[in-house]
Amino acid sequence: MSKLSGRVAVVTGASKGIGASIAEHLAAEGASVVVNYASSKSGADSVVARITKKGGKAIAVQGDVSQPNDIHRLFSETKKAYGKLDILVNNAGFYEFAPLEAITPEHIHKQFNLNVTGLLLNARSGQTHRAGGRLDRQYRLHRWSDASAASGHLQCKQSCGRCYYSFALSGAWSTQDSCELA
Asked: Which end of the chain is more exposed for a tag (fewer CB within 10 A), N or C?
């Protein structure tokens, strides 16, 4: 029996890259996987096809995880398809490099809404959709530069937004007391 047999996992931002790989690895370990995507339906469908071709279970669900209505639909579709939720991987993220003088409020809000607010709204919604109210596991992927910026080691000359985002994310991450890190 596989380690995650009978478990259901949602992976945000799973239509390509790291998210796609995580989704495929979870499925290989026996989890039923919800492949979330914001805009690349073809990418998500490709990930689902690779999973199901190997005998796994997966569905694709569109949703911008910075939008509360989309988040609600993501978890509702998960419950409709699989009846429960066990694992949440908050992988979706967005970043644009820009010098300080080019950063606008819209630029800041776009990043913050997905990378910080979306993370917290996903965690909250995931908890409410989980039987018993707590997820088995909840992960947020941190890139090396996030940790560096939070500890003051990243130079902010061309990436001020990234530094401030990392500081904000560090505070958001510390509020997630249900996390278990592998």
From this structure: C
